[in-house]
Amino acid sequence: MRAALGTRVLRLEHVGSTSVPGLAAKPIIDMLLVIADPAEEAAYVPALEAAGYVLRIREPDWHQHRALVRRTDLGHGYDVNLHVHPPGSEEIDCELTFRDWLRTHPEDRARYEAAKRTLAAREWKYVQNYADAKTEVIEAVLARARRGQERIARRQAVAETVRKRATAVKAAWALQRVPAGAPMFATLSGRIQPSRELSRIKCLFEHAICPQTDT
Questions:
Q1: Are strands 11-15 and 29-34 parallel, antiparallel or unpaired?
Q2: Residue 128 and residue 135 in contact, taking contact as beta carbons nearer than 8 Å
Q3: How many domains does the chain have?
Q4: Residue 85 CB: number of other CB atoms within 10 A?
Q5: Do 67 and 16 share a domain, yes or no?
Q6: Contact assessment for residue 201 and residue 164, using Cβ atoms and an 8 Å cutoff
Q7: Are residues 114 and 30 in the same domain?
Q8: Which residues constitute the domain of residue 51?
Q9: Residue 187 DSSP one-character state
Q10: Is the pTM of this model over 0.85?
Q11: Quick one: CA torsion of 92, 93, 97, 99, rounded to 10 degrees?
């Protein structure tokens, strides 16, 4: 891919079921390609066609999405789905969030696999119908993943607050210990009480690491 497109590749990610270890998947690799403007097909489609890809889908009203497949050596079937999106597409975050969550959460991975197997046992007129049928379970997993991301962001913010306050307490305490007669570079409105401040820091820290459920 990079050999075919060079610097036109802004991001290239392995997504889909084959990107999640331990998840049952068809022998077809899903790739996510980010380029500056998927609508400018002349800038990348010919190069991909020379590498064995065929443009199958145009969806200009949906994130300027383009989908290509790579034909197998015999020309029958395909072994790669390539999804092309522009920078800033919401679908990029969805794909990567879903993949990363399943990689680290075996319960949701098993739940998703069970749904896939149930749906795969049915007959579908079009492959897209099968993909659409997975929407409910995918959205449920994404909702849990995003709540998990929000919790991580909150903990990181609190941890940064703890770090800054601890630094301030240390500096203020050191200032109070300056020998008599030494020049003062700051004025304290009142003497700091380290035990009280450390208690506050401890409370913040415990809030930052408080375990939460993923439901």
A1: antiparallel
A2: no
A3: 2
A4: 22
A5: yes
A6: no
A7: yes
A8: 2-133
A9: -
A10: no
A11: 0
Q: Across-strand partners of 33?
A: 12, 84
Q: How many residues does the chain have?
A: 215
Cα 164 to Cα 162: distance, rounded to the nearest angstrom: 6
Secondary element (H or E) of residue 15: strand 11-15
Per-residue confidence in pLDDT tens, the chain, 215 aa: 899 999 999 999 999 999 999 999 988 999 999 999 999 999 999 999 999 999 999 999 999 999 999 977 655 578 999 999 999 999 999 999 999 999 999 999 999 999 999 988 888 877 778 888 888 899 999 999 999 888 888 888 888 887 887 787 677 666 655 455 544 444 444 454 555 555 665 565 555 544 444 44
CATH, residue 92: 3.30.460.10
Write the single-letter amino acid at 10.
Answer: L
Q: Count of H helices and E strands in the chain?
A: 7, 5
Q: For residues 214 and 101, what is the distance between their CA atoms, to the nearest angstrom?
A: 11
For tokens 């497109």, the residue is 5
**Angle in degrees, 0-180, between the axes of helices 106-120 and 90-104, rounded to the nearest 10:** 110
DSSP string, 124-168: -SSHHHHHHHTHHHHHHHHHHHHHHHHHHHHHHHHHHHHHHHHHH
User: What would the two tokens of residue 30 be?
Assistant: 């899903």
**Nearest Cα to 116, choosing from 25, 42, 13, 18?**
25
d(CA 181, CA 184): 9
Report the distance separating Cα 17 and Cα 113, nearest Å: 9
